[in-house]
Design a protein that fits this description.
- By secondary structure, the chain is mainly alpha-helical.
- The chain has one domain.
- The protein is built from ten helices and no strands.
- Helix 1 runs antiparallel to helix 4, helix 4 runs parallel beside helix 6 and helix 5 packs parallel to helix 9.
- It is globular.
Length: about 200
């Protein structure tokens, strides 16, 4: 019962879409109505309000971290389930007609809460790919692929590994449009326009 309750609370925390909350608070249009229509920091940045994008990124990452930290502190056995639940909440938010983001920032927060070394390794992977190839989506995909590897390396094939593996698969699925554009050579580069 406590595990189920922890998962529900985590899902509800994850359902807070900071892209939507921050946009409303700052008088910006709904991020689901322009650009990629994805309620995430990258799309919010398209408004030209860098502060809004930063707040969105920080909020989405923080909620992932908070949900896992609370579970680890009060219901340790539920922590892996809370990790997956908060991620699912971001992807399919109950408060926003189940139209959520792709989960990159929330996943990062979850990974840092599970083990800071996993979070740091995954973040470093993202930074390296983004810096050299200048594709945010490709960096996210490669980082997602490495996250289960880092988890298994540091924690073994436990419940956290299963959680991270499912998260990675869902994140890749949410980026299927980006994958198609990467293959077609039309994906947007960081700091540039579509080819």
């Amino acid at each position: 019962m406590s595990i189920a309750l922890a998962a529900i609370v985590a899902y509800l925390i994850g359902s807070i879409s900071f892209a939507i909350v921050v946009s409303r608070a700052m008088g910006l249009p709904d991020p689901r109505s322009y650009g990629s229509k994805n309620p995430g920091a990258t799309n919010v940045l398209r408004t030209g309000r860098r502060s809004a994008a930063v707040l969105t990124l920080a909020g989405d990452a923080a909620k992932g971290w908070l949900a896992v930290w609370l579970a680890q502190r009060y219901v340790p056995d539920a922590a892996p389930y809370a990790a997956l639940a908060v991620f699912l909440g971001h992807l399919f938010p109950a408060y926003h007609r189940f139209q959520g983001g792709k989960g990159v920032a929330t996943a990062a927060g979850v990974l840092f809460a599970i083990d800071w070394r996993i979070g740091l390794g995954t973040l470093a992977t993202w930074i390296i790919i983004a810096a050299f190839l200048r594709y945010s989506s490709l960096a996210a995909l490669v980082a997602a692929a490495f996250a289960p590897f880092f988890t298994a390396l540091l924690l073994g094939f436990d419940a956290y590994f299963a959680c991270v593996l499912v998260m990675a698969a869902l994140l890749m699925w949410r980026h299927r449009g980006n994958i198609a554009r990467l293959m077609a050579g039309t994906e947007s580069r960081i700091g540039g326009n579509k080819a």
